Recover the amino acids of this structure.
């Protein structure tokens, strides 16, 4: 019942489908716990689309990028805390209790966000959701690993990873579905309460992890669960194996011999394994995938697709490929090997980042210019910073960076790529610009594209 490395191949997945008919109880355990992975993916992905409409409802969020960043990043900060305390909660109170606590945090966070009257409470709700994400990210795969038969354990644990990326894809679909609904972002964020409530109810009727029960000397309860998981001809062997494993673990914990970390780090195989394992986790974050997932619709708007609905629809491509990648990796990991699959993936990451960098550079270096004549057309609302400047080298991007007061770009009436006007950024000027059938950009660079 160890939760270490488990091989995943096609036979394991075929065994899963076979087991669904022979013993659906195992799949009930695995997929009930796997809802935690789905919530993890949903709550990390849903903010990307909701943010577009939050900016529309709260002018302060629209004007202050640090508020947008806070709304997004506080969930990550909460996840760090949730993961840190999750290990202690798992060992002290059990895997089942940890999942129930995570569901409670997910539910409370979703309700707070859906009803938030201001950005402050929205951030508080994101913190609650982040705490749930942190606990679920470590508890769900642990519970699945300890409550599933050894021969299909790897396949079932792998489904948790797929549910995370699947949850992100689902969040984009939900975002797109609620674009026409009253309240838009409140529905997008609040709907996460439903799977959290569903998992909470399901877990109330499911048992604790048999391994944790053995650790707490509740052998009879653990054995009763194992008899439901394993066939009659295998259960006695599994009970004995679990008993020996737990006893060996307890002996090691009580041993007076301390682990010499310096000596371990001097061991070449240990050091290389540590660098590879930790390094991959670090670089997986440093490549910027979270930025793309959290701000995908905003990035699409930077490319010139001003419509929120269009931006969300195009962002489905990103989340869909992300989910597809998890399926492809599960299929090929034992056919091509870990190293080759990793190198291929990294080549794709480098190519994608290169393309993104080139596009952003071209966008900022070829922005429409600022015209004195166009700006004079709105003389009463011209940007003070532009009026006091020498007026040489000003373009859309430079206008948007002006402050005290903030300024916005009103595109030329003939063509949005022609030089436009640099004006004070407020709702009155925005309406005035739109009234002449011009494009207005007062925050991001959606109108400053090639």
């Amino acid at each position: 019942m160890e939760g270490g490395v488990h091989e995943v191949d096609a036979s394991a997945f075929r065994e899963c489908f076979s087991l669904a008919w022979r013993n659906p109880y195992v799949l009930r355990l695995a997929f009930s716990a796997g809802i935690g992975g789905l919530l993890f993916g949903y709550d990390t992905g849903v903010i990307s689309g909701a943010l577009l409409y939050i900016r529309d409802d709260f002018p302060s969020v629209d004007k202050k990028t640090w508020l947008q960043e806070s709304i997004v990043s506080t969930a990550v900060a909460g996840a760090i805390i949730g993961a840190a305390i999750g290990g202690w909660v798992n060992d002290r109170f059990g895997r089942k209790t940890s999942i129930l606590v995570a569901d409670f945090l997910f539910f409370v966070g979703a309700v707070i966000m859906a009803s938030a009257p201001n950005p402050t409470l929205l951030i508080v709700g994101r913190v609650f959701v982040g705490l749930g994400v942190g606990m679920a990210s470590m508890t769900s795969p642990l519970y699945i690993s300890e409550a599933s038969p050894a021969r299909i354990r790897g396949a079932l644990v792998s489904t948790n990873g797929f549910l995370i990326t699947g949850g992100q894809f689902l969040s984009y679909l939900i975002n797109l579905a609620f674009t026409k609904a009253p309240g838009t972002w409140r529905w997008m964020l609040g709907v996460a309460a439903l799977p959290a409530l569903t998992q909470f109810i399901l877990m109330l009727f499911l048992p604790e992890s048999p391994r944790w029960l053995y650790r707490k000397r509740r052998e009879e309860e653990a054995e009763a669960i194992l008899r439901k998981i394993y066939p009659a001809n295998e259960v006695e062997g599994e009970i004995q194996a679990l008993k020996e494993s737990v006893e060996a673990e307890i002996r090691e914990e009580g041993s007076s011999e301390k682990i010499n970390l310096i000596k371990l780090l001097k061991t070449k195989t240990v050091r290389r394994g540590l660098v590879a394992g930790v390094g991959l986790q670090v670089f997986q974050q440093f490549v910027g995938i979270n930025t793309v997932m959290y701000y995908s619709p905003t990035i699409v708007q930077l490319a010139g697709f001003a419509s929120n609905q269009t931006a969300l629809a195009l962002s489905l491509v990103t989340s869909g490929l992300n989910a597809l990648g998890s399926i492809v990796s599960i299929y090929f990991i034992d056919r091509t090997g870990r190293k080759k699959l990793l190198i291929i993936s990294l080549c794709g990451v480098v190519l994608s980042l290169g393309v993104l960098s080139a596009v952003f550079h071209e966008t900022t270096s070829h922005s429409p210019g600022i015209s004195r004549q166009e700006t004079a057309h709105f003389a009463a609302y011209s940007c003070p910073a532009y009026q006091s400047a020498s007026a040489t080298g000003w373009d859309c991007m430079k206008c948007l960076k002006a402050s005290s007061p903030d300024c916005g770009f009103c595109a030329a009436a003939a063509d949005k790529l022609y030089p436009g006007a640099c004006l004070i950024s407020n709702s009155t000027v925005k309406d005035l610009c739109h009234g002449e059938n011009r494009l207005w950009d007062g925050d991001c660079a959606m109108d400053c594209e090639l």
Q: What stands out?
A: The first strand starts at residue 407 and ends at 410. The first helix runs from residue 10 to 22. Residues 58 and 119 are 7 Å apart (CA to CA).
